[in-house]
């Protein structure tokens, strides 16, 4: 059976390939059963807010709710026990993108991503510098660690740091904690068997308002026990999330992939031209 994240990829890809009827608008869709996030985005639209506002507040709701433990503060800690956040947002009307990775001390990752888009000429800020940017923009610095994330980290240490993302290092990462040093490169087994929806995930959201304006966003705290500095692969705007508008009815896509490379073969997608293409044929080409 196909992994659940891959199934969601297919759903969102098919959405991208099938024209959205203007009569069906507005529209809010997101990954996983994060209903409160969907409802919050919908309330924003119903109150006259923009698609951009809806995505920001919808993903922001998930950050506050700590959805699945994989979004927002107090979730998946890295190797040092710290929780860091990744997020991006894209405006399909202007094609502007803002993203942050390895964000520390700031809970509102999706809002910081929007600040990058609107208050800088960059698209992607990472690490401590992203946090300083956020503080300069008026965001409050807070400790993202909670008792839950601290307990996850302590259990991991007590289990000899298993699982982890190290390879070809000494001591043997399959049965020992670091610090690690390089060693002879060994043949690696395919895939990360310890990865599941509870140890890494994200919310991905697409909003199309009544006028057909498309916005997409994503937010996550990344992979549990990741090496510090790792940014979820999907934060690259051309691989995780894209939004664009075409004529009077929009097309949109949000392609998400994780460390499931043996199962997923996706190419970077900036734009999809839809003219008589059978969605099944596209999926067949990708898999």
Mind explaining what this structure looks like?
With 287 residues, this protein is α+β, with helices and mostly antiparallel strands. The chain has eight helices and ten strands. The strands form three sheets. A six-stranded mixed β-sheet has the order 1-7-8-2-3-4. Helix 2 runs antiparallel to helix 3 and helix 3 runs antiparallel to helix 4. The longest helix has 15 residues, at 51-65. The model is unreliable at 1-12, 247-277 and 282-287 (pLDDT under 50).
Furnish the topology, listing elements before pairings.
Elements: H1 4-17, E1 27-30, H2 35-46, H3 51-65, E2 85-91, E3 96-103, H4 109-119, E4 124-126, H5 127-136, H6 147-158, E5 169-170, E6 181-182, E7 203-208, E8 214-220, H7 237-240, E9 242-244, E10 251-253, H8 279-286
Helix pairs in contact: 2-3, 3-4
Number of helices: 8
SSE order, as H and E?
HEHHEEHEHHEEEEHEEH
| Low-pLDDT residue intervals, each spanning 5 or more residues | 1-12, 247-277, 282-287
Q: Widest sheet: strand order?
A: 1-7-8-2-3-4
Shape: elongated
Strand content: 15-25%
The amount of helix comes to 25-40%
The computed structural class is alpha+beta
**Cα gyration radius (Å):** 19 Å
End-to-end Cα distance, whole Å, is 14 Å
Q: For the residues shown, what is the average pLDDT?
A: 79
Quaternary organisation of the protein chains: single chain
Main beta-sheet strand count, sense and barrel state: 6 strands, mixed
How many strands? 10
């Amino acid at each position: 059976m196909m992994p659940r994240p891959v199934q969601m990829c297919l759903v969102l890809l098919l959405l991208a390939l099938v024209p959205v009827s203007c009569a069906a608008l507005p529209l809010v869709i997101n990954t996983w059963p994060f209903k409160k996030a969907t409802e919050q985005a919908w309330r924003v639209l119903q109150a006259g807010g923009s698609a951009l506002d809806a995505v920001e507040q919808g993903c922001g709701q998930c950050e506050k709710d700590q959805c699945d433990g994989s979004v927002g503060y107090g979730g998946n800690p890295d190797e040092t026990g710290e929780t860091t956040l990744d997020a991006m947002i894209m405006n399909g009307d202007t094609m502007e993108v803002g993203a942050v990775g390895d964000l520390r001390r700031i809970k509102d990752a999706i809002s910081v991503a929007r600040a990058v888009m609107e208050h800088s000429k960059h698209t992607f800020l990472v690490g401590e510098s992203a946090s300083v940017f956020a503080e300069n923009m008026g965001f409050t610095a807070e400790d993202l660690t909670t008792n839950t994330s601290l307990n996850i980290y302590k259990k991991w240490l007590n289990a000899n740091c298993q699982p982890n993302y190290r390879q070809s290092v000494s001591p043997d990462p399959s049965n020992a904690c670091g610090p690690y040093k390089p060693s002879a490169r060994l043949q690696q087994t395919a895939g990360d068997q310890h990865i599941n929806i509870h140890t890494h995930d994200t919310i991905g959201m697409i909003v199309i308002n009544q006028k057909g304006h498309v916005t997409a966003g994503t937010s996550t705290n990344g992979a549990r026990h990741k090496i510090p500095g790792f940014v979820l692969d999907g934060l690259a705007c051309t691989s995780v999330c894209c939004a664009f508008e075409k004529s009077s009815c929009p097309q949109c896509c949000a392609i998400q992939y994780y460390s499931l490379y043996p199962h997923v073969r996706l190419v970077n997608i900036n734009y999809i031209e839809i003219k008589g293409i059978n969605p099944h044929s596209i999926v067949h080409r990708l898999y």
